[in-house]
Every structure is written in C-alpha cells, then in structure tokens.
Amino acid sequence: MPNSATVGIEAMAVHVPKYYLPLESLASANGIDPIKFTVGLGGRAIAIPHPNEDAVTMAVEASSALLKRYNVDRSRIGLLIVGSETGVDAAKPIAAYVHGFIGLHSMCRTFDTKHACYSATAALTLAREWCAGSGRGRKALVVATDIAQYDRGSPGEPTQGAGAVAMLVGDAAAAFVFDDFPEAFYTRHVMDFWRPNYRNTALVDGPASIKSYLEALRTTYASYEVQSGVPFNGYKHLLFHVPFPKMAFKAFKTLYEREASRRNGDGMPFPLDESFERCTAPALWANRELGNLYSGSLYLSLAGLLDRSGATVEGARVGLFSYGSGCCGEFFSGTVGACAAVWRGRTGLTEGLARRTALDHQGYLAFRETAATLAREGSFNAVLPGVEQTGAMAFLGIKNHQRVYGLVSAEHETAFIHTPPCEPSRTAPTPTA
Ligand code: CAA
Q1: For 405-423, how does the pLDDT look when each residue is reduced to its tens digit (9 = 90+)?
Q2: Are 387 and 408 in contact (CB under 8 A)?
Q3: What do you get for the CA distance between the two ends of the chain, in Å?
C-alpha cells in the first residue's frame, strides 16, 4: 500500500546569482529614502541575474548542485517538474532543457507548472502524491526558477529578485516530511499581478495584490485549522510566500491578531514582534538578500531556516502558506525529520552569498538592457564578461529560433563550448524495495 506518512523533501539546493544590487543604491538612484526599502519593505539587496543567466540556467545550476552535494542517483528520478513564471518558450517546457542538461533517464515524466508564485507548490503537491502512489520508491525533482522584474522606477522595482530552488521529493525518511492532513486551498480570478506575453516586466496593482494575498491566507489557514486540528501555537515556525520580507510580517500579524482575538483576553505568550522574531524571522535572512524569487520564495525561506537551524528544529512542525497572484493560495504543513541536519550549511546559500559581487546602479541598468537584447530573436552572442565561474551554464542567445546554451570553458572565461544535452542516463529508473 502507498505510504504517504514518510513522503517529503529529502534534499534542497539553492542557486544564488552572482550579482546583487544593494537596495540603498537603488533608493539613492531613484531619489527615495532608503529606509522605505530596508525597513518599509524589509529587504537589504536584490539578486540581479547576469545576462547569460535565465530561468533554464538557474534551474540547471540548482539541480546539478543538488545531485552532486547529496550524491543523488539520477536513475532513481522518475518525475521532473519545474515551477516558473519566467517561461522561455510558449511550448517547450523548462523541464525538458533541465532534463537534458543534467542527464536524467528518458523514462522520466517532465513538465512545467504555472500559476504565478504558486507554481512550485502545485508541483510539490503532484510530486508528493506521485511518490506516495505510482512512483513509490522513486524520486521526484521539483525546481522553482524565476527572475522577478518590474519597470524601472516602479513601486515593484525594489522587490525584484532572481534564483532557483531544487527539491528532491521521496518517501524515505525525508528531512522535511509533509503532514498528511486534508488540503486547504483557495482560488479567485483577480487581476492583482500579471505579465502579458509581450512584456518581460510584470504589471501589478500593489494594494489589490496585498489584499488578495491576505484574503487567501485567512481562508486557507482557517480551513486548515479546522481540518487538521493544529492550533496556532502548534507551529514552531510559520513561513509565508515572500514577495518582500515585510509581507511575511503582515501575514504573521494577520494570524497572530486572529488568534489573539479568539483568546478573549487570555493573552498571547509573547507580544507580536517577539512572536514574529521567534516564529518567522529566522527563515527570512536569505529572502532579505535575494529579493523575490516568485515560485521559489517560500522554499528559499524553508531552505534558509533549515540551512541555519539544522538539528535544533528536529521534530518541529512548520506551517507554510503559498500564494500565486491571479490567484491561488494554499496552506499546508510539515514536520522536520531527524535527518534535517544534512541540510545545515549544504543548501548552497552560505557559499552562494559569500561569492557575490555588488553592482552599482549603472551596472544593474547595463545587465538589464543586455539581457533584454540577448533574449531577442537573432541576437546570438557569446559569454559576456563577468559570467559565473568556470563550468557554469550560460544562455548565449538565440540562433535559428533556438535558445543556445553553453558551459563556460575551463581555459578561458570568455570562450564557450556549445553544449548539446547530456546523454540520458543509461540505467533505467529503479524503485527501492
Ligand atoms: N521610512 C520607513 N518606512 C517607510 C518610508 C520611510 N521613509 N516610506 C514608506 N515606508 C513604509 C510604508 O509605511 C509602508 O509600510 P506598511 O506597508 O507597513 O504601511 C512600506 O514602507 C511600503 O510603502 P508604500 O506602501 O508606500 O509602498 P509602495 O506603494 O511604493 O509599494 C508595493 C509597495 C505596492 C508592495 C510595491 O512594492 C509593489 O508593487 N510590489 C510588487 C507587488 C507585491 O509584491 N505584492 C505583494 C502581494 S502579491 C504576491 O505576493 C505575488 C508576488 O510575488 C508578486
């Protein structure tokens, strides 16, 4: 019989882009008080992808790191789902590129999911059901990859970001085991945030998006509380989708005040700010450095929490709220397993952040413009200066209507070799006993 009780995330790896823009630089270039960005929105910096990076290269980097760091047997992976709203093609999924470049077996189902920032949660749900059912004994790879970009000078610009999170889902004593409670989700057709096909920057109705996010949170949390029986204080940590870090505070405050009003004067163990510092803030340190990862931002928080906490959160119940504009929300939870310590310092966050380079405002504008040119048909180019280190995947431009990718060569950083997809793994996927 399928066993869903041990299904969860067994490994996680984050791709951190090499460049970032301190929010203070953006504020001073835009003539805005920097405190608005650092305190009002709660960020410190935003990740800026190099023009040779796109949603495919970031997903490949995160997936390759995961396979290597956790010594994953590729032949066990029978499902690959990529969640993204930064699609590079209307038909060909990012998952097909990733499958080829990381060399998975052909007996692997691959597809992308899309529903704004909710897409990776949809992917995880499918992966978890597959691992508990027909895929039992095999592994699913779920990757969230996005570049969040808004118009220059718009209110959304300080909430940009980029990165990818790869997660291995399986049914063997996962480090983060999904709680097997009934699901709590919410959908409503709302135009709070969207990106038409002819634009590479998103459009947003900021106040409507915040209202819709909080409505989805209230509804899903209330439904989950009734169905699971887990009370507010049953969660050691509460994590939320993080379009900007202050939004996680607004979300936590919503649940805290709901609980406080239900206690009819019985009081809460800690004041609001202290509760937030204990419950949610420990997960936000990486979000403050990278900005919005769209589909990956909730999972960046989870990686941040477990990368720093390790064994100290073993056995802790964590509640997670995922929100995708448009909109779909879901509240779910999981319990940190005994092997969570394997993630400590291993998600790639610490080393990724340590090797970053700050851009000034001019450098940021130049990257933005070059990336837009490179992505246009016929703009085939080579590896540009300042690319990731040797061996990194690079998007080189478009030739014959095909996106061209390469590996930065070992001899010379500005040379490249055209990389055909890896040969598929020769070993057939094998379920465990
Ligand atoms: N010092 C300190 N604080 C200051 C300040 C100053 N000088 N100036 C402003 N602030 C504070 C404000 O008081 C405000 O705080 P509160 O929210 O606690 O009241 C905060 O800084 C932001 O100020 P504004 O509300 O004036 O900011 P804005 O209107 O210019 O932009 C935004 C805010 C609408 C969220 C904008 O960043 C945006 O459009 N972001 C993109 C959309 C988004 O992230 N929506 C979130 C929900 S949708 C979602 O989650 C999906 C997704 O990923 C996009």
Answers
A1: 888 775 544 444 444 455 5
A2: yes
A3: 13
> Are the C-beta atoms of residues 291 and 161 closer than 8 Å to each other?
yes
Give residue 310's pLDDT: 61
Place of tokens 């630089």: 25
Beta-carbon-side half-sphere exposure of residue 59 (alpha carbons within 13 Å): 34
Cβ count within 10 A of residue 368 = 18
Q: Which of 155, 128, 159 is nearest to 146 (CA)?
A: 159
User: What's the pLDDT tens digit per position in 150-162?
Assistant: 999 999 999 999 9
For residue 9, which phi and psi values (nearest 5 degrees)? Answer: -90, 120
Largest Cα separation within the chain, whole Å, is 69
The one catalytic residue among 99, 105, 115, 241: 241
Whole-number pLDDT of residue 208: 98
85 is catalytic: yes
Distance CA 431, CA 433 (A): 7
Confirm whether 131 is a catalytic residue. Answer: no
Distance, in Å, from the CA atom of 106 to the CA atom of 424, rounded to the nearest integer, reads 6
Q: Kindly tell me if the per-residue pLDDT of 19 is higher than 90.
A: yes
CA distance linking residue 109 with residue 82, whole number of Å: 11
pTM value > 0.90? yes
Q: How far does residue 389's CA lie from ligand 1's centre (Å)? A: 35
Alpha-carbon span 135 to 337, nearest angstrom = 21
- CA torsion angle 274 277 278 281 (round to 10): 160
* Closest C-alpha residue for ligand 1 atom 38: 156
Residue whose structure tokens are 């080189």: 396
311 in contact with ligand 1, CB cutoff 6 A? no
Which residue type does 280 have? T
Q: Where are the alpha helices (DSSP H) in 229-265?
A: 245-262
The label of the residue with tokens 């960020």 reads 43
d(CA 51, CA 10) in angstroms, rounded, equals 32
List, in sequence order, every residue forming a beta bridge with 373; answer none if it has no partner: none
- Integer CA distances (angstroms), 30 to 3, 155, 223, 364, in order: 54, 11, 42, 13
Q: Which of 85, 157, 289, 388 is catalytic?
A: 85
CB 389 within 8 A of CB 412: no
Ligand 1 site, residue 323, Cβ cutoff 6 A: yes
